[in-house]
Amino acid sequence: MKEEKFWQEGMDGKRFALCLFRKVWVILAAALIGAAAAGGIYLFTALVLGGPAQYQVLSQYRIYFDKDKYGEIEDYYNAYTWGEIMKTDQVVDFVMEALPEDITKEQVKASVSVGQMNDVKIMPLYITTGDAALSEEIAQAYVYGLGEFARSIEGLSDMQCWLVEPAVPVARAAKTGNAVGFGAVLGAILAFLALAFLYILDDSIYLEEDFRKRCDAPLLGILTRQRNKEYRQELLTNAAFLLKGAGQLCLIEVEKGKKERDSGFSEKESGGTAQALEEVRELLAESIGENPEISRMFWPFAEQDCEKMRRGDGVVLALPWGYGSGRKLTHILIQLEKQQISVRGAILMDADDRYLKAYYRK
Known about the structure:
With 362 residues, the chain is an alpha/beta fold. It has three domains: 1-50 and 172-202, no CATH class; 55-162, EIF_2_alpha (Alpha-Beta Plaits, 2-Layer Sandwich); 204-360, Rossmann fold. The protein has helices spanning 13-22, 24-48, 67-70, 79-85, 89-96, 105-111, 132-152, 176-201, 208-212, 229-242, 258-263, 267-271, 273-288, 303-311, 326-338, 353-360; strands at residues 55-65, 112-114, 122-129, 156-164, 168-169, 219-224, 248-253, 293-297, 315-320, 343-351. The longest helix is centred in the middle third of the chain and has 26 residues, at 176-201. It comes from Eisenbergiella tayi. This is Capsular polysaccharide biosynthesis protein. Keywords: Membrane, Transmembrane, Transmembrane helix. The chain crosses the membrane at residues 24-49, 179-201.
């Protein structure tokens, strides 16, 4: 048995891609789950935890600067500057003059904001409150207040409102699509990383190269699910040469254990695995051509089993394709090495024809 270093070797990109393709449904499922979870969390936060509905009024103002007296003063103003100015007492005091006494200065300051200014002379003003009528009332008060403010401060000559829209509900889940998209991408990435990590830890045997990294014995051949004739002939040819003269062989199925040996074939095995193993026995007998005695052995091995395998001409391992049997194979090889039992070769069973065709291009 070889020293186990297969997990330290470079990644076979083609093998990884084919293994990943077989699990692409996991990535898709993770993307769907991530999208649903992110969308649900966002909607719950926006609709349930977001508080009562808000109503917003958009006003547009034309700002007139006193250039004759103060020059290019507009360079000192931007959206952030105006956003702060709109909440100062210099402005709000004028606004309060146009509002009833039951509306407080704190309500006004909390409701006002300035949007993106593409032109320093055009200011979009937003009034947002929990009541549509209140938003419209404060917006109208700002029409009066900003005119008075502009005429009272140096650098401005006037601020005229040329648009006041009716109050509209503020969209509370406007970015649901973004949340869903983010969740889908995050779910897919996490699934990909998880599959990549599992691939690194995976000891499954998909190819002859995988077996050679674990065992010094040769892989006699591959028995595919569709019984590919080329792989079958390859198996017969290799077995005829490598097992020549073997009169007594033992066939060990890596995945089976003591329980199966004691209880006999299960219903599932009798229809599938037993038939495949019987086919393997026939193929070995056909390739050797001397009607050899081929016995079936199971792990864990009894003392008489080991004695029989030592007296014989070695053992042949039957490995299931791609089912994580690498670790079990390593353990069995260690036990056979301890008992000084010769491993003549192995057969990879039930291999996926499409996988092998995609990898070997044949």
